[in-house]
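Bug #77: duplicate submission created two jobs. Keeping one. Sequence:
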Amino acid sequence: MELKIGDPWKIILENEITKPYFKDLTNFVKVEYNSHHCFPPKEAIFSAFERCSFNDLKVVIIGQDPYHDENQANGLCFSVKNGTKHPPSLKNIFKELATDLKQDTPENGDLEKWARQGVLLLNATLTVRAHAPGSHQKKGWETFTNAVITEISTKKENIVFLLWGKFAESKKSFIDASKHTLLLAPHPSPLGAWRGWFGSKHFSKTNAFLKSIGEQEINW
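Kept job's structure:
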């Protein structure tokens, strides 16, 4: 499992991927992919970094696990391959997006368009065994992605962190709120979306902030 990403992500994360825990994580992931059906495809494990340049970074969205069913996970949190049926959380994301920005509900569930504009779509755990949610948790991925969040907080300014649900909210401790903007909302899952996800207006609020600091708004 190689971190095939360019500078400056690789420079920023080099220290992390040389630590003993990351070697253990790499060995675990290799065994899992050789022994079981896992998601996302090997070549897409680090897609969040490959699709979003560190220099262009404006927004961070934090997910938990990749989708664990066929033809869904593509390495970007909440995102699925174009043509794949939208999972329930993504449906609710798109419903809120359409209402918030008064536009049509997107048909393409691949969120690479967001990533290319500077939205890091980061799952806390980057891999999962098929049909076994949470199966790759607590193996080292969280240590890695917590370090990523810390590095972003330290090295960047005026990043919008969209924290959806209790799990994402737990990452607040890695973010310097005095130099970044944190927007919190319930998770868009059908289990909790009714508690305040709908009407949270995170898409328009993000764009309003970006506009206020002279940055290009995201074409959601």
